[in-house]
Structures are given as C-alpha cells and as structure tokens.
Fold each of these.
Amino acid sequence: MKNTQPLLEKLQMGDLELQNRVIMAPMTRSRAINPENAPFDIHIKYYQQRASAGLIISEGAQISKKAVGYVNTPGIYSDAQVEGWKEVTEGVHEKGGKIFIQLWHVGRMSHPDFHGGELPHAPSAINPHSKSFTPEGFKDTETPKEMTIEEIKQTILDYKNAAANAMKAGFDGVEIHSSNGYLLHQFFNRTSNVRTDEYGGSIENRARILFEVIDAIKEVMPENRIGVRLNPSLHGIFGMTLDEETIPAFDYIIEKLNQYDLAYLHLSEPFNDVSEIPYAEKEIAKRYRPMYKGTLIINASFDQEKGNKVILEGLADAVAYGKPFISNPDLVERFAENGPLADWDQSTFYTPGEKGFTDYPKLSVSKSI
Ligand SMILES: Cc1cc2nc3c(=O)[nH]c(=O)nc-3n(C[C@H](O)[C@H](O)[C@H](O)COP(=O)(O)O)c2cc1C
C-alpha cells in the first residue's frame, strides 16, 4: 500500500496545493495560559511538529471576549494574540505546512464566570444543561441571554474582524466553526432556537447567520480560503438535540454552500451511536457527497484503512484526524510507512504545559529508544 494510498495523494484546494489528504482536525488544548490568552512557544512547537499534515486546522480560537467558554483557549481578537499566532504560522510554513485557524464562538456553552457575572449569549434563552470548563473547573451551564439583533450584527462583525486578524497573522485560511453545539449550530436547530424574528422560525431564517458570517468574512479575505465545519447528526452531546427539521436544515445549508467558492466543507460523521435516534442521518458522507460540489473533508473515528477507503469510494476528498494527531505528530509519515500508531492520553488533553502536548515522539525517535 506504500505511497499508493489515496490519503497520500496531493489535493488541489482552491488555489492551495495540499501535499496529502491527511488533515489535522481542530482540537482545543487549553494551553494559552497567559493574561492575553495568546499562543506562545509551546504552540509553535506543537503545530510545527504536525506540519506534515496536508492541512492543519487550528484549535478553536475565540473571535471576541464574549465568544469564550473554555479556560485557557487562545483568541484571535487582540494584537497580542495576532503576534502569538504569527509565530505559529511562520513555524508551520517554515516546515512546508499549511494552517487554517478555526473561528469559534461558543454561545450558550459558557458560564457567567467568563463574563464578569453576565450571562453568555445565545439565539434563545434555553439552557443546554451541559458543563462549562471554567477557571474553577467544570460548572453547570446556565440559561443564556437571548441575543438582540444588534448583538447578532456585532457578532458577525466580530467574525469579520477575527478573519482579518487571521490574515494579518499569516494563516492560509479560516474555518468557521458552525458545528458541535456552539453558537452557529445553536441557531440551526429548533430545540436551541425559538426566535420569532428573521433569525428564527423557518429553516432559511435559522441558517441566515452562517451566510451572513461568510459574506462578512469574504470582505476581508478570498472566498476560496474559507472553510465551514458542520456536524449534522450531533445528538445528546454539547446540549444538542435533533428534531424533525434538523436534517432538512442541513440539507438546505449544504445546498446553499454550493453558491460559494469555499476552500472546503468539513463534515463530521455522528460522534456517537445514533442508530436508534429518530431524525438522525447515520451516514453523513453518503448523504452529502452527492449534494456538495466543492472539496469535502470528512471526520470522526477514521483510521488509516477507513480513510483510504472513503476517498477511494469517492465519498470525500480528504480526511480529518483528531485524536490520532495528538499522539502521532508524524501521522502522515506513519501512514506512509504503514507504521504503528501511538495511543493518546486523554488525561492530558486539556492540562497545562508540554506534557501530552509536545512530548509525543515521532516514530523514528520511539524506534531508537
Ligand atoms: C481534545 C479535543 C479537543 C477538540 N476541540 C475541538 C475544537 O476546538 N473544535 C472542533 O471543531 N472540534 C474539536 N474537537 C473534535 C475533533 O475535531 C474531532 O471532530 C473529534 O476528535 C473526532 O475525530 P477523531 O475521531 O479523529 O478524534 C476536539 C476533540 C478533542 C479530542
């Protein structure tokens, strides 16, 4: 299978040529421990170590102070954050890699502790009954504040500002985080959005904010450097509940994304077993590959064999790997060698410092130990 693997073929993504189709999925690592929540040396090292990925999608980066919901996550709204990220992108480019930043607003998946005691913002005042990872540990979420139209418009501007900052910081592009139960996803589903204005009610209204965000970002960077992430069958995680209009809403969104010349659409297969869940689409790539005309990245629980297969079958153009990239910085080389993969240690996913972050060795190093 050496070097004839679909995963190892180049991929033309807009005007970018990716060296392979092994994408590093966005992963929050909660290590931006400084008053500015800016990336620093250990982030440069971490991303540089993984630069042989066809494309790195960074951890979620909050677009504003209001967008945060997890402790020690980096932002992309201040000058210090831009400076920090600049060194990260330079480090990755030096190694021949490419990197997009994930633009993140958690919406109701936050806690008043992050907002000087004020409530987090969301489409509607509905508690996700989930947990927020605050400076004092995990706390129960509270009922958020329903956003006013002005707050929605400001948030769209925050996305635009964050994208402009991303360009300043030297990123190759941005991924709009509209999945996993965060702000934009909260607008899509009827169980989290009961608004009666132009951002609620019909499917078109519930999807509106995503397209307004794309249109705003397009003003500051090329459309073909914008990616969109969606997780249509998310259920029972991050406060999301499927309803009978969820999949029709995603059908509408994905059809409409064809009107844009995006870098890619990044979809997740169901994160958990939804075989018994009403209204769940069980096979995301099968449903949406025929529908979406642009570059499609697929994610969740892929290994080398399944990744090669999904591309060979024409169901996706590239595969995003999350946890395997945590413990295998040289995942691409390991695939090329058909080498063994190291296991990840869940206990260090979100802990401070280099342990479990930059100390996973390459295969060549572990072989010589
Ligand atoms: C530690 C950790 C942090 C994550 N943080 C993010 C994130 O910031 N943004 C995002 O879209 N997904 C995030 N995810 C989800 C991953 O991108 C991916 O969808 C998930 O891990 C499934 O892929 P895998 O089976 O290859 O790990 C995270 C996952 C993990 C394990």
Amino acid sequence: MKVTFLGTNGWFDTSTGNTVSVLVQADGYDLIFDAGNGIAKADHYISQEKPVFLFLSHFHIDHIAGLHTLAKFRLKQGLRIYCLPGGAALLHTFVGEPFTVPLEKLPFSAHAIELEEGIHKIPFIVECRPLVHPAPCYGYRVEIDGRVIAYCTDTGVCDNAVLLARDADLLITECGLKPGDTSELWPHLNPQDAIGIAQKAHAKRLALMHFGAEVYKTLGDRTALQEQFGREFPGLIVATDDLTIDV
Ligand SMILES: [Zn+2]
Ligand SMILES: [Zn+2]
C-alpha cells in the first residue's frame, strides 16, 4: 500500500509544509490520519471512489484545520470520521455554522464515530490508545492488507506508543523537538525519543513528521536528521509534504 504525507508541519504552515495529515491507500479503502491543512491535497492522490476513513488524533487545531476544505471533495462512498469519546459534538461544532459547511450538508455522506479505547473491527482492525498530551489524544494502530501501521502524534514518550507500534511495518510519529530538547509542560518527541520508541516496539520503519514549525525552520533542518540518525535506525524516513512511500 502507499503512504503519502500530505502535511508534515506541527503547529502551523510554513514554507516547509502544511500542518499534519497522512494518507494511506489500501486495497478497499483510503485512510487519512489527521486533518491539518495538508488534507486539502488528498484529492491529488485519491480517486474518491473508495470509502474514506479519517482518524483524528485530537482536536488541537493543527490536526483539524483542514476540515473546512471537506466541501470540495466528492467522496462517492462517503466519509467516516473516527475520534475520541466526546469528539462527535466537537466535530459538529467545528465543522458547522458559522465556521464552515456543516458535516450534514457536505456533498457526500459524512459521519462522526467515537471510539472507546481498545481494539475494534471497522471492518479492518484498528486499535486506539491514549497518548501523553495536554489535551486528550489517541494514537492508532491499523492492520490492513497484511500490513501494520501505527500513527502516534502528539505525544511524549509513553508505553502506549510502544504498544501501538509493536512489530509495526511502519510507525509514523512526531518530531516536535530538536535533537536532545525536552518540553515537560507540553510533551513532544525529539528524534532520539522517536527512535527509542521504534526500537522498543521492534517497528521495521519509522517515519518522522509533525516537525515543530518554530524549530525546524527549513527542510535542511529535517534532512540533517537523516544524516545524524539514519545509521542508528536504518528504517528512518524523514517525511516532507507529498512524499509517498510503499509499505
Ligand atoms: Zn500537533
Ligand atoms: Zn497537539
């Protein structure tokens, strides 16, 4: 399957990219993780013929800002938006008047579905677990077409990130901080933290995204990570907007 990074910035858009959104194109479904501004590019890649499943990690605006672009899509088999308990009401507020076209008035069917922590068959397997963040936040693990993809952002180092990423073909996680930096009041990962989680979980590959827009000011700041840490974790991918990889 193909994984395309539609938006790879944390917090706000800059010349390095849009805020976070990741597209996973499986045989029968198109999956999207988070709806930062990058989601507006999804129709450059998908045919809009398959059902689209959108998984929201949390409601910080860099993860939902792109929802106001949903009205331009024509998803022939509709959209299911999975979120935390209590998230459906938030979605109907944010994707509603006076902010934008309400969910129920989009030109395709769109439903918000809250997931309890645990493992669900929707019909493919999805596991969701809380991460460590100032706001309630889910990490996800999906098993589809014989592959396992874990998506864990925004978070500090935590056991649930390791649990979700266990033996994953690909762990997609955040890199909010520069190497060696920490942020105790507002937990995020630096590249060493992310590699530590991937190693502990025995993930085969690790894609870094959600680069803190205020600290990774140029794409060169990102590629430096590949040089610095590529040997330590050979499956390291430093994502940029519109990068597509096969999984
Ligand atoms: Zn974020
Ligand atoms: Zn956040």
